[in-house]
């Protein structure tokens, strides 16, 4: 028999009745039933109930066993008594009577967190003792899911004729939207390598090298501020690149891979088969986000005309300023003052003065009485008899200020009726779009409009290549600096803020899953594109010399994209935090509490690298 086990803790069933077996694993929990000791023995595969009665030669040893000890047991498989079968686990029809035990690893002291049970622990504790946290069933399932997803992605890419290549981890620094992690060079004092933010330049060089199709499950390193859906240090992505392709070719290649993975591991949720293509401009207008959650059917609309010159002075005066507008967020079924006040309070917490609203309700007896010049009691009687039709009325401060005609025009534009509401924000769109987007999400969730049993995908296209810094007025890249501008060199002769790129993102349920572009493979267009952003030809050659030089030797048109592995798994696992699907993540302060990183280098290390640490005040 094997030194540690003949079976796993998920293998045994009634077919093994009467067999002598050997199991190894961790003590999930111990129960003492009147002198008979029951142990749930757990390994990676499952749980088997083992027990020890006073007749066992090792009863005294088994009595000492505690939770999370690692043990090996030999024993006899027996059928459980009728009525004691546990149908929740594969081994629930049998139990193993212990006849020998070996302690393979004790727990010294108290456990900092329990593996058995559903008790919640602070994230700092969980990350410091991640090896214990990972023993829990949910975490084991998440990591197995991650492995299976990666395996499925690889197979799907191979089936499409892609070859997998690995690009360097130690490379040169390049501006790709985040801070680099720098690596000092011992052999070249004063010079630094960088960990790649993405394999961007190398995958383009592979196309110049004639490989046609490439992919890899690539580690990427970016010194970024952490978020619930973003690691502050490193992450993995499905990175792919293709030669002789246009934008639609990339879409047609990646869609069956992503859709297939979500169909395979999505737990039966609906997966959109048609993926809408929405311009960046429309996404900002309709959803307040370039990664909209399309499970929510609400679309925001511009309603500036209804407020221009109206009795609502705040919006009327605002609209006299250049570049301002008023947008409405329709809220079907949100027509109550309580809900409207709650959303107004949300806007105030977000830093806005508030959020105007109108809601529509059945006309009240008070309104009928005022309209007909009769008493409320008479109005009630006329409404009850049907002599007067109740109809609908608009309520809320905005309705009173702008009057019934404008209010009715807004209702008709938004397609709303009795029991519905609309919320309004005004100003320069950049100042309120993000808050409007969050408000739209909350409205959809609270009113039950968001279809939670669905994965909704959309391509966001036509991104602007450049943006202007609000403080300095400097033009810089808004997105990927290596993207081909739509219209080529001619497009770069006009207003930079009007230049669109062949850039695209894939949004799913409010998250960005994929980002990519058709690349700028012509040196003359690349130099001009960087010149607009303030980088001269000499600077471009210095930073991207390898790629610029390569493009002078017959570079093919090419493009690709990258899909975030961590976010894909997070969505499939129905987790809200990306750290739940990463084996050993950093905390919110970019610290590894388990390995004590980052740590201070020794004096010898600094001397060898020719470095000195200057304390920051």
Structure characterization notes:
This protein is of the alpha+beta class. 31% of the residues lie in helices and 24% in strands. α4 (137-159) packs antiparallel against α6 (247-265) and α11 (365-372) packs across α12. The model has no long low-confidence stretch (mean pLDDT 93).
Secondary-structure map with pairings?
Blueprint: E1 20-33, E2 36-42, E3 47-52, H1 59-63, E4 70-79, E5 94-105, H2 123-128, H3 130-133, H4 137-159, E6 163-164, E7 181-184, E8 192-195, H5 200-208, E9 213-221, E10 234-243, H6 247-265, E11 270-271, E12 276-279, H7 280-287, E13 301-302, H8 304-307, H9 313-318, E14 325-331, H10 337-349, E15 356-362, H11 365-372, H12 376-385, E16 392-395, H13 397-414, E17 421-427, H14 429-446, E18 454-455, E19 457-461, E20 466-468, E21 475-477, H15 488-491, E22 503-508, E23 511-518, H16 523-532, H17 537-550, E24 558-564, H18 565-572, H19 603-609
Parallel strand pairs: 3-5, 6-9, 11-18, 12-19
Antiparallel strand pairs: 1-2, 1-4, 2-3, 4-5, 7-8, 9-10, 10-24, 13-14, 14-17, 15-16, 15-17, 19-22, 20-21, 22-23, 23-24
Helix pairs in contact: 4-6, 4-18, 5-17, 11-12
